[in-house]
Amino acid sequence: MLKFADLCSSIMYTTPFYKEVIMIQLSERQREIVDIVQRLAPVTGDKIAEELGLTRPTLRSDLALLVMLGLVDAKPKVGYLPGRYPKYDSHVGSMLKKLTVADILSEPILISGDATAYDAVLMLFQQNTGTLMVTGEEQEFIGIVTRKDLLKVMLGHTDLHTVPVTMAMTRRAQMTTLLPGDSLLEAISRLVRHQVNCLPVLDEQCAFPTQIQGLVGRVTKTDIMNAILSLTEERT
Fold this sequence. Notes:
The protein has ten helices and ten strands. It is α+β, with helices and mostly antiparallel strands. The strands form four sheets. Strands 5-6-7-8 form a four-stranded mixed sheet. Strands 1-2 form a two-stranded antiparallel sheet. The protein has a two-stranded antiparallel sheet with strand order 3-4. Helix 3 crosses helix 4 and helix 4 (56-69) packs across helix 9 (184-194).
């Protein structure tokens, strides 16, 4: 009998990023994970790791990708279950590595380093975002501030009107970034590995419409989900 994982090893997608049909190839380990979930569901991440002879952190990016593709479903306090097998014109597979960060990045939302933490909170709500890119006096990219960063300041019972956003942000030298040529899979891996919702995309050689030195965009979990949904749409 053909295993579910075998069916998932070769998926054909169409995408607005490319006019041609793209083949996506799942790795051998990802196919093994899907097969384990099929056989043992509901199954914990620790059990999957045990079956493969690996550690749970090693599988984090693989599991995240499979969940986003709909091949595996994750239920809190239950474990991993078989996902809803999507309908395609041909059998499914994996090629996300052919998409790059440049194909999916979005425009960054900027805030001046002169602004206060209170200004940042307002902008997060107004722009319906979770991350702001902080710019310096010469319009250079100097850091990133998130909801979590601002929550830490608020928990200290500090008046947000008196705290510069630069005091709450993560500085450029301390953050993980992406390059336009990085693969979509690498972006997913870094987001999962560092447990963040957004990563800045830097390229010193590229000019961006916002004219922020070195900053060409951002990649969020929403950007990735939209890309995957585009890839997995049924052909008409």
